[in-house]
Amino acid sequence: MQKKTHDYDNVFKTMKMKHRRLFVSVINDVFGKDYPLDVKVDVLPSEGYLTENETVDGSKEIEEQISDFLIKVKDEVYLLECQSYDDGSMAIRIAEYAFIVARQFAVWDIGKAIIPMPRFSVIYIKRTGRTPKTTTITFTFPDGQSVDYNSDNVILEELSKEYIIEKKLFPYIPFYIARYENEIASEGDVEAAVKDLMHFKDEIIRLQNENELSDDELIDLKGFINTIITHITNGNKNEERLVNIMGGVVIETESDKIKIRTIIEMGQEVGLADSEIIKKLQEKIIGLPLKRAEAYLEQFGKQTM
């Protein structure tokens, strides 16, 4: 059974806010564009929308969600939505995003309105038998007219590590390891995962030496990869080996230690369980392995009897 997790979404959203430049190559690849990597990229305001989700007991609940990546490059608006599992509400969510764009870019006059739709694509981190090749929204009108608004989906499991490096699809790299989730989580054979991680490590270091990646981009990519690894392993015997390939995150600065101490103290003050505090540490400190988070909790936390 695949995990429904916010960890993948958190990495994707953090990457888009800190390193939007890296997504230009993704847009070029998905939509057949040829933007230079230094083109100006504007992240558009992502307003909330409501969606109905099914809970564990089968009941329904309404949740507010935020769009993953709504951006403007030159005169084109793009939406890249990251999905870690099959979701039957995806098509209607894309439609909701489209009308968020309409409120920002629609042109109207007396008796007329032009509503521009963004180019969109759904990026599926993992694949099941239900994962669709395309996403289609069909608009029907009272006079019988019907218009299909569709786009091919990106299914990361279908992309090779060589293709990802060749096309400089850096935002995909942290999620590549998800194709080995079953083997990693069950403590099975992880040699294929190790081999692929070594490949990515060598290639991103090479590209950094060739000035295709900045120092900050390289460091954060390693951290993002380790965040996904620590989510999948959840502290099992594979975690240390896999995290060490990219290099574990070492917190040394005083400002970092103050941030960690604050998270721990605030968590304990409001009565959070140790497991919840550790989870928050790993969410806030990209790439922080489980064992290191536990060590910080022991170091900075109040000892309870």
Secondary structural class:
alpha+beta
What is Rg?
21 Å
* Low-pLDDT sequence parts: 48-52, 60-67
E-strand count: 11
Strand content is 15-25%
Our measurement of the CA-to-CA distance between the termini, rounded to an integer number of angstroms, reads 37 Å
Q: Helical stretch count? A: 12
Q: Specify the biggest β-sheet.
A: 5 strands, mixed
Q: What is the average per-residue confidence, as pLDDT, rounded to a whole number? A: 83
Helix content: 40-55%
Shape by Cα distribution: globular
Spatial strand order of the main sheet:
1-4-5-8-11
Order of helices and strands: HHEEEEEHEEEEEEHHHHHHHHH
How would you sum up this structure, described in words?
This protein is of the alpha+beta class and 305 residues long. It has helices spanning 7-18, 23-31, 90-105, 161-166, 173-176, 181-185, 191-209, 215-233, 238-246, 254-269, 274-284, 290-300, and strands at residues 41-43, 48-54, 60-66, 70-73, 76-83, 107-109, 112-114, 119-124, 134-140, 146-152, 154-155. A five-stranded mixed sheet has the order 1-4-5-8-11, with helices on both faces. The protein has a two-stranded antiparallel sheet with strand order 2-3. A hairpin with a 2-residue loop joins strand 6 and strand 7. Helix 1 packs antiparallel against helix 8 (215-233), helix 10 (254-269) packs antiparallel against helix 11 (274-284) and helix 11 (274-284) packs across helix 12 (290-300). It is globular, with a radius of gyration of 21 Å. Mean pLDDT is 83; it is low at 48-52 and 60-67.
